[in-house]
Amino acid sequence: MIEPAARDVYLAAGEIYFGEGRVRVHTVLGTCIAIALWHPLRRIGGICHFLLPSRRTKPGAGDPLSCMYADEVMDSFAASLRATQSLSRDYVVKLTGGGNMFPDHLMYAECRQSGCSDARRAVCPGVGCMNILSARSLLAAGGFAIAAENVGGRGSRQVIFELWSGEVFVKRGAAMANSAKSAP
């Protein structure tokens, strides 16, 4: 039996996709974060591309959620889990992004010399570092366990999430010449 061709979906900053089937989701990240959730038994899942940890002001009553912010993305994911009657603990979660796009200008000297670390991220004012910490915290609070990460460091990432298999592929750097599959 020949598998049907995959449908490609391109995720822009501030967007989220949740579904099933032969769907391949693409996005490109800098300081932004992509969170991929995949349910291995039901073969459903989703991915987001958020820009910042949270809004500086809370949305007004009746305002729609904005997936530009990590906290509101998690509310959107929670709604998708309720709609599919699935539980956060059953998902494989892969976290990608949070790169420093201007390492020679906006990076602590220690990071330039020896790279990022979780201890440095805790005090770093960089957007990428704040996004990484926010994503980890919100995922833990939502009952999700992170199975794999490709976060921090320098430069951009192209992310490809295959919804039918749960695989996440990452190409790194400005030219995105180096390709790697995320850890299982």
How many E strands?
10
Give helix % range. Answer: 10-25%
Number of domains: 1
Instruction: Give the SSE order as H and E letters.
Output: EEEEEHEHHHEEEE
Shape field: globular
Mean pLDDT: 85
- Second CATH tier, the architecture: 2-Layer Sandwich
What is the makeup of the main sheet? 5 strands, mixed
Quick one: CATH class? Alpha Beta
Q: Low-confidence segments, ≥5 residues, pLDDT <50?
A: 175-179
Please report the distance between the alpha carbons of the first and last residues: 27 Å
For the biggest β-sheet, the strand order reads 1-3-8-9-10
- Percent of sequence in beta strands: 25-35%
* Backbone structural class: alpha+beta
Gyration radius over CA: 16 Å
The CATH topology comes to: 60s Ribosomal Protein L30, Chain: A
Explain the overall architecture.
The protein contains four helices and ten strands. With 184 residues, the protein is of the alpha+beta class. The chain has a single domain, classed as 60s Ribosomal Protein L30, Chain: A (2-Layer Sandwich). Strand 8 (157-162) and strand 9 form a beta hairpin. The strands form two sheets. Strands 1-3-8-9-10 form a five-stranded mixed β-sheet, with no helix packed on it. Strands 2-5-4-6-7 form a five-stranded mixed β-sheet, covered by helices on one side. The chain is globular and about 55 Å long. The longest helix has 15 residues, at 127-141.
Write a short abstract of this structure.
With 184 residues, the protein is an alpha+beta fold.
SSE topology sketch:
Blueprint: E1 7-10, E2 16-20, E3 23-29, E4 33-39, E5 44-50, H1 70-83, E6 92-97, H2 109-114, H3 118-121, H4 127-141, E7 146-151, E8 157-162, E9 168-172, E10 178-181
Parallel strand pairs: 1-3, 6-7
Antiparallel strand pairs: 2-5, 3-8, 4-5, 4-6, 8-9, 9-10
